[in-house]
Amino acid sequence: MTVDPAIPGQQKPTPLPWNQLIIVLLIQFAEPVTGCVIYPFVNQFVRELDVTQGDEKAVGYYAGLIESMFFFSEFLTVLAWGRASDKCGRRVILLFGPLGLAIATLGFGLANKFWLLIVFRFAQGVFNGNIGVSKTVMAEITDTTNRGQVFSLMPAMWGLAVAIAPTMGGLLSHPAEQYPGIFGSIKLFQMRPYFLPCAAAAMVAFSCYIYAFIGLKETSLLINNRAPQDYGAAHTLATAADVEEQAFAEAAEANSLTPPPFLSFFNPMLRLVLVNYGLLVFADMACFALLPLMYSTPIRYGGLGLSPHNIGMIMGLEGLYNIFIQVFVAGRLIRRFGPRTMQIVGSLTLVYIMAFYPVLSYVAHQKGGVDAIVYALSEWLLFCGYSTCISIATCHMYVVDSASGPAALGTTNGIAQMLATGVRTFAPWIASSLFSISLEHRLAGGYLVYLVLLVPCLVQVKYNLLLPARLQNHH
Protein backbone atom coordinates (compact mmCIF):
# COMPACT_ATOMS: atom_id res chain seq x y z
CA MET A 1 0.00 0.00 0.00
CA THR A 2 1.38 3.41 -0.95
CA VAL A 3 1.87 5.82 1.90
CA ASP A 4 0.55 9.31 1.32
CA PRO A 5 1.97 11.83 3.80
CA ALA A 6 -0.82 14.26 3.09
CA ILE A 7 -3.45 11.87 4.44
CA PRO A 8 -3.40 11.59 8.23
CA GLY A 9 -3.61 8.26 9.96
CA GLN A 10 -2.77 6.12 6.92
CA GLN A 11 0.40 4.81 8.55
CA LYS A 12 2.00 5.41 11.89
CA PRO A 13 5.02 7.77 11.55
CA THR A 14 8.40 6.05 11.66
CA PRO A 15 10.24 6.81 14.94
CA LEU A 16 13.00 9.36 14.59
CA PRO A 17 16.74 8.84 15.35
CA TRP A 18 16.91 11.77 17.72
CA ASN A 19 20.62 11.58 18.55
CA GLN A 20 21.74 12.26 15.00
CA LEU A 21 18.80 14.52 14.24
CA ILE A 22 19.66 16.82 17.15
CA ILE A 23 23.24 17.15 15.91
CA VAL A 24 22.10 18.13 12.42
CA LEU A 25 19.61 20.60 13.86
CA LEU A 26 22.35 22.18 15.97
CA ILE A 27 24.49 22.67 12.86
CA GLN A 28 21.51 24.38 11.24
CA PHE A 29 21.01 26.41 14.42
CA ALA A 30 24.52 27.90 14.22
CA GLU A 31 23.75 29.60 10.90
CA PRO A 32 20.80 31.84 11.92
CA VAL A 33 22.41 32.62 15.28
CA THR A 34 25.50 34.08 13.62
CA GLY A 35 23.43 35.54 10.79
CA CYS A 36 20.66 37.19 12.83
CA VAL A 37 22.65 38.53 15.78
CA ILE A 38 23.49 41.66 13.76
CA TYR A 39 19.92 42.67 12.88
CA PRO A 40 19.11 44.77 15.96
CA PHE A 41 22.29 46.84 15.59
CA VAL A 42 23.43 46.67 11.96
CA ASN A 43 21.68 49.92 11.01
CA GLN A 44 23.17 51.69 14.02
CA PHE A 45 26.56 50.15 13.19
CA VAL A 46 26.36 51.73 9.72
CA ARG A 47 25.42 55.10 11.22
CA GLU A 48 28.37 55.01 13.63
CA LEU A 49 30.82 54.19 10.84
CA ASP A 50 29.60 57.40 9.17
CA VAL A 51 29.64 55.92 5.68
CA THR A 52 26.35 57.73 5.01
CA GLN A 53 27.80 61.06 6.17
CA GLY A 54 24.75 61.68 8.31
CA ASP A 55 22.16 60.92 5.62
CA GLU A 56 19.56 58.92 7.53
CA LYS A 57 17.70 57.93 4.37
CA ALA A 58 20.82 56.26 2.92
CA VAL A 59 21.30 53.82 5.80
CA GLY A 60 19.13 51.23 4.06
CA TYR A 61 21.48 51.00 1.07
CA TYR A 62 24.51 50.12 3.15
CA ALA A 63 22.72 47.90 5.64
CA GLY A 64 21.11 45.99 2.78
CA LEU A 65 24.50 45.50 1.15
CA ILE A 66 25.93 44.00 4.35
CA GLU A 67 22.98 41.65 4.73
CA SER A 68 23.15 40.59 1.07
CA MET A 69 26.83 39.65 1.20
CA PHE A 70 26.00 36.69 3.44
CA PHE A 71 23.68 35.18 0.87
CA PHE A 72 25.77 36.15 -2.15
CA SER A 73 28.76 34.13 -0.94
CA GLU A 74 26.46 31.29 0.08
CA PHE A 75 25.04 31.35 -3.44
CA LEU A 76 28.54 31.01 -4.89
CA THR A 77 29.44 27.98 -2.78
CA VAL A 78 26.26 26.06 -1.94
CA LEU A 79 26.14 23.88 -5.04
CA ALA A 80 29.83 23.01 -4.71
CA TRP A 81 29.23 21.91 -1.12
CA GLY A 82 26.29 19.75 -2.24
CA ARG A 83 28.26 18.03 -5.00
CA ALA A 84 31.20 17.54 -2.68
CA SER A 85 28.96 15.84 -0.12
CA ASP A 86 27.71 13.41 -2.78
CA LYS A 87 31.30 12.43 -3.55
CA CYS A 88 33.15 12.90 -0.24
CA GLY A 89 30.46 12.26 2.34
CA ARG A 90 28.25 14.41 4.53
CA ARG A 91 30.17 14.55 7.81
CA VAL A 92 33.35 16.30 6.71
CA ILE A 93 31.41 18.90 4.71
CA LEU A 94 29.01 19.67 7.55
CA LEU A 95 31.81 20.20 10.08
CA PHE A 96 33.26 23.09 8.09
CA GLY A 97 30.15 25.19 8.71
CA PRO A 98 29.92 26.04 12.40
CA LEU A 99 33.70 26.34 12.84
CA GLY A 100 34.04 28.82 9.99
CA LEU A 101 30.97 30.74 11.13
CA ALA A 102 32.48 31.18 14.59
CA ILE A 103 35.69 32.66 13.19
CA ALA A 104 33.95 34.96 10.69
CA THR A 105 31.49 36.27 13.30
CA LEU A 106 34.33 37.19 15.65
CA GLY A 107 35.90 39.13 12.80
CA PHE A 108 32.64 40.98 12.13
CA GLY A 109 32.48 42.14 15.73
CA LEU A 110 36.06 43.42 15.63
CA ALA A 111 35.66 45.30 12.32
CA ASN A 112 35.97 49.08 12.35
CA LYS A 113 35.69 49.72 8.61
CA PHE A 114 32.74 49.21 6.32
CA TRP A 115 34.75 47.09 3.88
CA LEU A 116 35.73 44.77 6.75
CA LEU A 117 32.07 44.25 7.56
CA ILE A 118 31.56 43.23 3.94
CA VAL A 119 34.52 40.82 4.01
CA PHE A 120 33.49 39.02 7.20
CA ARG A 121 29.82 38.90 6.22
CA PHE A 122 30.92 37.35 2.94
CA ALA A 123 32.98 34.77 4.86
CA GLN A 124 29.95 33.86 6.97
CA GLY A 125 28.03 33.01 3.83
CA VAL A 126 30.82 30.82 2.50
CA PHE A 127 30.80 28.67 5.63
CA ASN A 128 27.03 28.57 5.64
CA GLY A 129 27.04 27.25 2.08
CA ASN A 130 26.81 23.68 3.32
CA ILE A 131 23.32 24.20 4.78
CA GLY A 132 21.86 22.19 1.89
CA VAL A 133 23.94 19.19 2.98
CA SER A 134 22.23 19.16 6.36
CA LYS A 135 18.87 19.00 4.58
CA THR A 136 20.16 16.04 2.58
CA VAL A 137 21.06 14.19 5.77
CA MET A 138 17.61 14.91 7.19
CA ALA A 139 16.02 13.50 4.04
CA GLU A 140 18.21 10.40 4.23
CA ILE A 141 17.21 9.54 7.79
CA THR A 142 13.46 10.02 7.25
CA ASP A 143 10.66 8.69 5.07
CA THR A 144 7.32 10.06 3.90
CA THR A 145 5.63 9.21 7.21
CA ASN A 146 7.80 11.49 9.33
CA ARG A 147 9.47 13.92 6.91
CA GLY A 148 6.91 16.65 7.52
CA GLN A 149 7.64 16.51 11.26
CA VAL A 150 11.40 16.64 10.71
CA PHE A 151 11.37 19.42 8.12
CA SER A 152 9.10 21.51 10.33
CA LEU A 153 11.88 21.40 12.93
CA MET A 154 14.18 23.32 10.58
CA PRO A 155 12.14 26.54 10.84
CA ALA A 156 11.93 25.82 14.57
CA MET A 157 15.73 26.09 14.69
CA TRP A 158 15.41 29.38 12.88
CA GLY A 159 12.76 30.46 15.38
CA LEU A 160 14.96 29.51 18.32
CA ALA A 161 17.84 31.42 16.79
CA VAL A 162 15.60 34.44 16.19
CA ALA A 163 14.55 34.26 19.83
CA ILE A 164 18.17 34.16 21.02
CA ALA A 165 20.32 35.99 18.47
CA PRO A 166 18.49 39.35 18.18
CA THR A 167 18.06 39.37 21.96
CA MET A 168 21.83 38.95 22.32
CA GLY A 169 22.40 41.57 19.65
CA GLY A 170 20.17 44.08 21.42
CA LEU A 171 21.16 43.38 25.02
CA LEU A 172 24.91 43.00 24.49
CA SER A 173 25.62 45.81 22.01
CA HIS A 174 27.41 48.84 23.50
CA PRO A 175 28.01 46.92 26.76
CA ALA A 176 30.26 49.65 28.20
CA GLU A 177 27.31 52.06 28.03
CA GLN A 178 24.51 49.64 28.91
CA TYR A 179 26.37 47.95 31.77
CA PRO A 180 29.07 50.39 32.93
CA GLY A 181 29.49 48.63 36.25
CA ILE A 182 30.59 45.42 34.49
CA PHE A 183 32.09 46.46 31.15
CA GLY A 184 32.64 50.20 31.51
CA SER A 185 36.37 49.88 32.24
CA ILE A 186 37.14 47.37 29.46
CA LYS A 187 38.67 49.28 26.57
CA LEU A 188 37.86 46.56 24.01
CA PHE A 189 34.14 47.05 24.53
CA GLN A 190 34.50 50.81 24.38
CA MET A 191 36.31 50.67 21.04
CA ARG A 192 34.37 47.72 19.60
CA PRO A 193 30.80 48.17 20.93
CA TYR A 194 29.43 45.26 18.88
CA PHE A 195 32.11 42.69 19.63
CA LEU A 196 30.34 41.18 22.65
CA PRO A 197 27.14 40.09 20.87
CA CYS A 198 29.21 38.73 17.98
CA ALA A 199 31.48 36.86 20.39
CA ALA A 200 28.46 35.33 22.11
CA ALA A 201 27.05 34.16 18.76
CA ALA A 202 30.48 32.80 17.75
CA MET A 203 30.65 30.81 20.98
CA VAL A 204 27.28 29.22 20.18
CA ALA A 205 28.54 28.22 16.73
CA PHE A 206 31.80 26.84 18.10
CA SER A 207 29.92 24.79 20.72
CA CYS A 208 27.78 23.30 17.93
CA TYR A 209 30.98 22.40 16.07
CA ILE A 210 32.45 20.59 19.08
CA TYR A 211 29.26 18.61 19.65
CA ALA A 212 29.02 17.67 15.96
CA PHE A 213 32.71 16.73 15.77
CA ILE A 214 32.21 14.26 18.62
CA GLY A 215 28.84 12.77 17.69
CA LEU A 216 28.06 13.23 13.98
CA LYS A 217 28.20 10.01 11.95
CA GLU A 218 28.46 9.49 8.22
CA THR A 219 25.35 8.59 6.22
CA SER A 220 27.01 8.10 2.83
CA LEU A 221 28.27 4.65 1.88
CA LEU A 222 30.65 6.33 -0.55
CA ILE A 223 32.82 7.00 2.50
CA ASN A 224 31.72 4.27 4.87
CA ASN A 225 30.79 1.21 2.79
CA ARG A 226 30.53 -1.09 5.75
CA ALA A 227 27.40 -2.00 7.66
CA PRO A 228 25.23 0.93 8.75
CA GLN A 229 26.47 2.66 11.90
CA ASP A 230 24.57 3.02 15.12
CA TYR A 231 23.04 6.47 14.81
CA GLY A 232 22.02 6.67 18.41
CA ALA A 233 18.35 5.85 17.87
CA ALA A 234 18.55 2.59 19.78
CA HIS A 235 19.63 4.48 22.87
CA THR A 236 16.71 6.87 22.74
CA LEU A 237 13.98 4.70 21.23
CA ALA A 238 14.96 1.11 21.92
CA THR A 239 11.61 -0.29 20.77
CA ALA A 240 12.22 1.16 17.31
CA ALA A 241 15.76 -0.20 16.86
CA ASP A 242 14.97 -2.56 14.01
CA VAL A 243 12.95 -0.01 12.08
CA GLU A 244 15.64 2.65 12.34
CA GLU A 245 18.46 0.25 11.48
CA GLN A 246 16.64 -0.69 8.30
CA ALA A 247 15.99 2.96 7.42
CA PHE A 248 19.65 3.89 7.77
CA ALA A 249 20.75 0.81 5.84
CA GLU A 250 18.50 1.81 2.95
CA ALA A 251 19.80 5.39 3.02
CA ALA A 252 23.41 4.25 3.02
CA GLU A 253 22.83 1.77 0.20
CA ALA A 254 21.10 4.38 -1.93
CA ASN A 255 23.96 6.81 -1.50
CA SER A 256 26.48 4.27 -2.77
CA LEU A 257 25.19 5.00 -6.27
CA THR A 258 27.15 7.34 -8.49
CA PRO A 259 25.44 10.76 -8.64
CA PRO A 260 23.71 11.29 -12.02
CA PRO A 261 24.80 13.93 -14.57
CA PHE A 262 24.01 17.49 -13.54
CA LEU A 263 21.50 18.36 -16.27
CA SER A 264 19.39 15.30 -15.47
CA PHE A 265 18.28 16.94 -12.21
CA PHE A 266 16.06 19.55 -13.88
CA ASN A 267 12.85 17.57 -14.33
CA PRO A 268 9.53 19.48 -14.78
CA MET A 269 8.50 18.92 -11.17
CA LEU A 270 11.77 20.32 -9.83
CA ARG A 271 11.46 23.38 -12.07
CA LEU A 272 7.99 24.12 -10.68
CA VAL A 273 9.18 23.59 -7.13
CA LEU A 274 12.15 25.90 -7.68
CA VAL A 275 9.91 28.68 -8.98
CA ASN A 276 7.73 28.38 -5.87
CA TYR A 277 10.75 28.21 -3.60
CA GLY A 278 12.39 31.24 -5.19
CA LEU A 279 9.26 33.38 -4.89
CA LEU A 280 8.70 32.31 -1.29
CA VAL A 281 12.28 33.06 -0.29
CA PHE A 282 12.20 36.47 -1.97
CA ALA A 283 8.96 37.53 -0.29
CA ASP A 284 9.98 36.15 3.10
CA MET A 285 13.47 37.70 2.98
CA ALA A 286 12.14 41.06 1.84
CA CYS A 287 9.74 41.13 4.79
CA PHE A 288 12.49 40.09 7.18
CA ALA A 289 14.94 42.72 5.86
CA LEU A 290 12.37 45.51 6.09
CA LEU A 291 11.50 44.71 9.68
CA PRO A 292 14.59 45.97 11.58
CA LEU A 293 15.06 48.78 9.05
CA MET A 294 11.51 50.04 9.44
CA TYR A 295 11.58 49.54 13.22
CA SER A 296 14.82 51.53 13.64
CA THR A 297 14.04 54.37 11.21
CA PRO A 298 12.77 57.56 12.91
CA ILE A 299 9.00 58.06 12.88
CA ARG A 300 9.25 61.20 10.73
CA TYR A 301 10.75 59.03 7.96
CA GLY A 302 8.10 56.31 8.14
CA GLY A 303 9.55 54.01 10.81
CA LEU A 304 9.05 53.40 14.52
CA GLY A 305 12.29 54.87 15.89
CA LEU A 306 13.03 51.89 18.16
CA SER A 307 16.44 51.29 19.74
CA PRO A 308 18.52 48.14 19.06
CA HIS A 309 17.66 46.98 22.59
CA ASN A 310 13.91 47.20 21.95
CA ILE A 311 14.15 45.64 18.50
CA GLY A 312 16.09 42.71 19.92
CA MET A 313 13.56 42.15 22.69
CA ILE A 314 10.59 42.28 20.30
CA MET A 315 12.18 39.85 17.84
CA GLY A 316 13.27 37.53 20.65
CA LEU A 317 9.78 37.34 22.12
CA GLU A 318 8.24 36.44 18.80
CA GLY A 319 10.96 33.89 18.17
CA LEU A 320 9.64 31.97 21.19
CA TYR A 321 6.22 31.89 19.56
CA ASN A 322 7.78 30.52 16.38
CA ILE A 323 9.44 27.69 18.30
CA PHE A 324 6.09 26.63 19.72
CA ILE A 325 4.44 26.68 16.28
CA GLN A 326 7.18 24.67 14.58
CA VAL A 327 7.66 22.06 17.30
CA PHE A 328 4.07 21.42 18.34
CA VAL A 329 1.83 22.65 15.52
CA ALA A 330 3.53 22.70 12.10
CA GLY A 331 3.97 18.95 11.63
CA ARG A 332 0.36 18.28 12.60
CA LEU A 333 -0.95 20.96 10.25
CA ILE A 334 1.09 19.59 7.35
CA ARG A 335 -0.15 16.04 7.98
CA ARG A 336 -3.72 17.21 8.45
CA PHE A 337 -4.11 19.61 5.49
CA GLY A 338 -1.25 18.60 3.21
CA PRO A 339 1.83 20.52 2.06
CA ARG A 340 0.16 22.50 -0.73
CA THR A 341 -2.56 23.93 1.49
CA MET A 342 -0.02 25.09 4.07
CA GLN A 343 2.11 26.53 1.27
CA ILE A 344 -0.84 28.64 0.11
CA VAL A 345 -1.62 29.78 3.65
CA GLY A 346 1.97 30.93 4.10
CA SER A 347 1.91 32.86 0.82
CA LEU A 348 -1.33 34.62 1.69
CA THR A 349 0.14 35.54 5.07
CA LEU A 350 3.08 37.23 3.33
CA VAL A 351 0.63 39.25 1.24
CA TYR A 352 -1.06 40.37 4.44
CA ILE A 353 2.25 41.29 6.10
CA MET A 354 3.44 43.44 3.22
CA ALA A 355 0.10 45.27 3.19
CA PHE A 356 0.26 45.75 6.98
CA TYR A 357 3.63 47.57 7.05
CA PRO A 358 2.22 50.94 5.87
CA VAL A 359 -0.65 50.58 8.33
CA LEU A 360 1.81 50.27 11.19
CA SER A 361 3.84 53.23 9.91
CA TYR A 362 0.72 55.35 9.53
CA VAL A 363 -0.54 54.60 13.05
CA ALA A 364 2.85 55.44 14.61
CA HIS A 365 3.00 58.69 12.64
CA GLN A 366 -0.51 59.69 13.67
CA LYS A 367 0.23 59.02 17.33
CA GLY A 368 3.57 60.80 17.15
CA GLY A 369 5.33 58.01 18.98
CA VAL A 370 5.31 54.35 19.96
CA ASP A 371 2.64 53.65 22.55
CA ALA A 372 1.02 50.40 23.71
CA ILE A 373 -1.11 50.17 20.56
CA VAL A 374 1.86 50.55 18.22
CA TYR A 375 3.84 47.99 20.22
CA ALA A 376 0.90 45.56 20.01
CA LEU A 377 0.65 46.07 16.25
CA SER A 378 4.40 45.51 15.82
CA GLU A 379 4.12 42.27 17.78
CA TRP A 380 1.17 41.20 15.63
CA LEU A 381 3.23 41.83 12.51
CA LEU A 382 6.00 39.57 13.80
CA PHE A 383 3.44 37.00 14.90
CA CYS A 384 2.19 36.75 11.32
CA GLY A 385 5.70 36.74 9.90
CA TYR A 386 6.91 33.75 11.83
CA SER A 387 3.75 31.84 10.95
CA THR A 388 5.01 31.70 7.36
CA CYS A 389 7.86 29.40 8.41
CA ILE A 390 5.52 26.45 7.94
CA SER A 391 5.56 27.13 4.19
CA ILE A 392 9.37 26.98 4.26
CA ALA A 393 9.10 23.45 5.66
CA THR A 394 6.65 22.36 2.95
CA CYS A 395 8.96 23.80 0.26
CA HIS A 396 11.77 21.60 1.56
CA MET A 397 9.46 18.60 1.38
CA TYR A 398 8.66 19.35 -2.26
CA VAL A 399 12.36 19.73 -3.06
CA VAL A 400 13.13 16.28 -1.64
CA ASP A 401 10.10 14.83 -3.41
CA SER A 402 11.25 16.21 -6.79
CA ALA A 403 14.67 14.53 -6.63
CA SER A 404 15.14 11.85 -9.30
CA GLY A 405 16.36 9.38 -6.67
CA PRO A 406 18.17 9.03 -3.34
CA ALA A 407 21.59 9.37 -5.01
CA ALA A 408 20.53 12.78 -6.32
CA LEU A 409 19.40 14.22 -2.99
CA GLY A 410 22.66 16.03 -2.23
CA THR A 411 22.82 17.88 -5.53
CA THR A 412 19.05 18.50 -5.66
CA ASN A 413 19.16 20.14 -2.25
CA GLY A 414 22.26 22.01 -3.40
CA ILE A 415 20.42 23.37 -6.44
CA ALA A 416 17.48 24.49 -4.29
CA GLN A 417 19.77 26.03 -1.70
CA MET A 418 21.76 27.78 -4.43
CA LEU A 419 18.55 29.30 -5.77
CA ALA A 420 17.45 30.33 -2.28
CA THR A 421 20.75 31.96 -1.43
CA GLY A 422 20.88 33.66 -4.82
CA VAL A 423 17.47 35.18 -4.16
CA ARG A 424 18.48 36.08 -0.60
CA THR A 425 21.50 37.87 -2.00
CA PHE A 426 19.35 40.44 -3.77
CA ALA A 427 16.13 40.43 -1.73
CA PRO A 428 17.48 42.40 1.29
CA TRP A 429 19.28 44.89 -0.94
CA ILE A 430 16.23 45.36 -3.19
CA ALA A 431 13.88 45.76 -0.23
CA SER A 432 16.23 48.10 1.66
CA SER A 433 16.98 50.19 -1.44
CA LEU A 434 13.29 50.50 -2.31
CA PHE A 435 12.67 51.58 1.28
CA SER A 436 15.33 54.30 1.03
CA ILE A 437 14.20 55.45 -2.43
CA SER A 438 10.57 55.61 -1.31
CA LEU A 439 11.49 57.77 1.67
CA GLU A 440 13.98 59.95 -0.15
CA HIS A 441 11.58 60.88 -2.93
CA ARG A 442 8.35 60.44 -0.94
CA LEU A 443 7.01 58.04 -3.58
CA ALA A 444 3.40 57.11 -2.84
CA GLY A 445 3.79 58.95 0.43
CA GLY A 446 6.90 56.90 1.23
CA TYR A 447 4.96 53.64 0.93
CA LEU A 448 5.89 52.65 -2.63
CA VAL A 449 8.25 49.95 -1.36
CA TYR A 450 5.34 47.99 0.08
CA LEU A 451 3.22 48.30 -3.06
CA VAL A 452 6.07 47.06 -5.28
CA LEU A 453 6.88 44.11 -3.02
CA LEU A 454 3.24 43.06 -2.93
CA VAL A 455 3.58 41.90 -6.54
CA PRO A 456 5.90 38.88 -5.99
CA CYS A 457 3.82 37.93 -2.95
CA LEU A 458 0.70 37.73 -5.11
CA VAL A 459 2.48 35.92 -7.96
CA GLN A 460 3.65 33.34 -5.47
CA VAL A 461 0.07 32.38 -4.62
CA LYS A 462 -0.59 31.67 -8.31
CA TYR A 463 2.32 29.23 -8.55
CA ASN A 464 1.36 27.54 -5.27
CA LEU A 465 -1.85 26.40 -6.95
CA LEU A 466 0.15 24.49 -9.58
CA LEU A 467 1.86 22.26 -7.01
CA PRO A 468 0.52 18.71 -6.57
CA ALA A 469 -1.73 18.34 -3.55
CA ARG A 470 0.16 15.23 -2.41
CA LEU A 471 3.79 14.20 -2.54
CA GLN A 472 4.57 11.73 -5.32
CA ASN A 473 7.88 10.01 -4.47
CA HIS A 474 8.91 8.12 -1.37
CA HIS A 475 12.70 8.30 -1.21
TrEMBL record:
Domain of life: Eukaryota
Recorded topology in the membrane: Multi-pass membrane protein
Major facilitator superfamily (MFS) profile domain: residues covered: 20-472
Pfam families: MFS_1
Residue ranges crossing the lipid bilayer per the database entry: 21-41, 61-80, 92-108, 114-133, 153-174, 194-216, 272-291, 311-330, 342-360, 380-400, 407-427, 447-467
Chief location category: membrane
Locations listed in the record: Membrane
UniProt-recorded name of the protein: MFS general substrate transporter
Source organism of the structure: Fistulina hepatica ATCC 64428
